Amino acid sequence: MLDTDTFRKVFGSFPTPVAIVTALGVDGEPAGFTCNAFSAVSAAPPLLLLCVGKGSRTLPAILASGVFAMNFVAHHGRDTALAFAGKGERKFDAVTWRRGMAGVPVLTEDAVAYAGCTLVETVEAGDHLLLIGRIDESETFPGTAALYQQGAFGTWEPDRRLAVQH
């Protein structure tokens, strides 16, 4: 069986997009964490998949409220992504945000897009829960998306030589 360090090395060897998942706690306080384990699931209806560690402090807020936002991190928002990857208590103090659907925090300055989601299904998978959310609200913002690979942030540069000519 694959050990945890090798697992992380294997999956860290290719670039992934980065998102900050946000929710409101039962106390009305915003909660959030940085995530790179998510995917589009369906366009009709619009669904996405999010993997959340069972020990996440944001998970109880998502499960209690049934709503969350995926804030897809812009390259210029990488410091915010690093801050939300930590265990700090006051993650929202240094970021600009507004309330989206059901009051869920939307990180307007550090994201290229966000998707406001209603939780529709939860599946247990090892030390994580797979959450499927229906996208009920979304918006895009200017900027270039952040990618993360082997502990460093970068951006994607398309190979124009391979672009299809119309």
Provide the fold topology:
Elements: H1 4-11, E1 16-17, E2 19-24, E3 30-35, E4 38-43, E5 46-53, H2 59-65, E6 67-73, H3 78-85, E7 98-99, E8 105-106, E9 111-125, E10 128-140, E11 147-149, E12 152-154
Quick structural overview:
This protein is mainly beta and 166 residues long. The protein is 14% helix and 44% strand.
What's the number of extended β-strand segments? 12
Number of domains: 1
CATH architecture grouping: Roll
> Given the structure, what is the number of helices?
3
Helix content: 10-25%
CATH class: Mainly Beta
Describe the structure.
- The protein is mainly β.
- The protein has one domain: Roll (Pnp Oxidase, Chain A), CATH 2.30.110.10.
- Helix content is 14%, strand content 44%.
List keywords for this structure.
single chain; 166 residues; Pnp Oxidase, Chain A; seven-stranded antiparallel sheet; three-stranded antiparallel sheet; 3 helices
